[in-house]
Design a protein that fits this description.
Helices cover 76% and strands 0% of the residues.
Length: 246
């Protein structure tokens, strides 16, 4: 604002400075509160997803109610419903959470110092441990009662595994332990289809073997189909060492 002589008055400048100071302070406090509040919300959401996943894996999806989850968390259902409209939405988010957890590298060793077969062996050991913790009822219940969620989950897993398998094939060929005539794209997709098949509840119910046994046999056949003579000799040496340690 200017006076009659066209100059800004001192009081107007001071008023503007005070306003700006309050405005900046208010914005800063608002962002600080929002950041702290978001952190608290994220931690609470992570707890809900983690505990729900544990209960689903242990007891099956259908047998776990929102009351059960609320009780295990020591949290009111009202709080849980602030994040999820219903159990179906919770299940969908739990599966996304599980998928993201699986994307985190699961191998303790430095993969830069491992060849392609070492990496697949390490992954196999990890998966075998995870399978011991799996409730076979879950796949059946997902497919029967939540078919859309089940299909989306399988597609996400398939796309992720496809990229990993392709990279492993390319690494093994470059290292001279996989067959050089390997059709990377086709064999990777065939392997993924095998993974989908061994997760199929109907298939599992038709064989007299546990899920872990089926997976390990499939994995062994996979390696023997893609490795050359050098790779196969290395693989058998490593599996013998592992078998002698258990």
């Amino acid at each position: 604002m200017r006076n009659k002589t066209g100059q800004e008055t001192l009081i107007d400048i001071e008023t503007m400075e005070t306003f700006l100071n309050h405005f900046v302070s208010g914005v800063f406090n608002c962002f600080t509160f929002a950041a702290v509040n978001k952190k608290i919300m994220d931690e609470k959401l992570d707890r809900i997803l983690s505990e729900s996943l544990r209960l689903f894996k242990k007891n099956g999806i259908r047998s776990v109610s929102m009351d059960d989850i609320s009780k295990e968390l020591g949290m009111s259902k009202k709080t849980i419903y602030q994040y999820f409209a219903n159990k179906t939405e919770l299940l969908e988010k739990v599966l996304s959470y599980f998928h993201e957890k699986e994307r985190i590298p699961c191998i303790g060793e430095d993969t830069a110092n491992m060849n392609a077969i070492d990496i697949l062996l390490a992954v196999s050991r990890y998966v075998s441990i995870q399978l011991n913790d799996m409730n076979p009822i879950n796949a059946y219940e997902l497919q029967k009662y939540y078919p859309t969620i089940y299909r989306e989950f399988i597609i996400r897993k398939r796309d992720h595994v496809f990229e990993q398998v392709k990279q492993n094939f390319e690494q093994g060929i470059a290292e001279g332990i996989y067959r050089i005539d390997l059709d990377v794209e086709l064999v990777a997709r065939l392997y993924i289809q095998k993974l989908v098949d061994v997760h199929d509840p109907e298939f599992l119910s038709s064989v007299n073997f546990g899920f872990e046994k089926v997976f390990l046999v499939m994995f062994d056949n996979h390696i023997r189909g893609i490795a050359n003579a050098k790779g196969l000799a290395y693989y058998e040496k490593q599996t013998n060492i592992l078998n002698n340690n258990f």
